[in-house]
């Protein structure tokens, strides 16, 4: 994962560019850095049974319980908090993400 310092709302994730520019609440590269790490971290909850909402909620629960460093293998301390909506937005922009609609969900 790479973040362009001149365009801190752009994440390069596995060769794909994710543009977070529409997210007005992202105001610092440390938030973008945290979202990029959270993208990789969220894979542990992608088991084909959980919805996108459930995956995002699990990641946020882990962060709230253990701090932002939980999303990285080594403690960096250079992350800033983001909202679940920003993570969902980024996940939704991944062209490699394959999702299935669950029929038992009522909205």
How many domains? The number is: 1
Order of helices and strands: EEEHHH
> Which word captures the global form?
globular
Q: Per DSSP, what share of the residues sits in E-state strands of 2 or more residues?
A: 5-15%
Mean pLDDT: 85
Q: Helix count, per DSSP?
A: 3
Coarse structural class: alpha+beta
Unreliable spans are none
Q: Helicity level, as a percent range?
A: 25-40%
Distance between the termini: 34 Å
Estimated radius of gyration: 14 Å
Summarize the structure.
By secondary structure, the protein is an alpha+beta fold. It is built from 3 helices and 3 strands. The mean pLDDT is 85.
Properties at a glance:
107 residues; alpha+beta
Explain what this protein looks like in three dimensions.
It is a single chain. The chain has 107 residues and is an alpha+beta fold. The protein has one domain. It contains 3 helices and 3 strands, in the order βββααα. It has helices at residues 29-42, 52-66, 84-92, and strands at 2-3, 10-13, 16-19. Strands 1-2-3 form a 3-stranded antiparallel beta sheet, with helices on one face. A hairpin with a 6-residue loop joins strand 1 (2-3) and strand 2. Helix 1 (29-42) crosses helix 3 and helix 2 packs across helix 3 (84-92). The chain is globular and about 40 Å long. The mean pLDDT is 85.
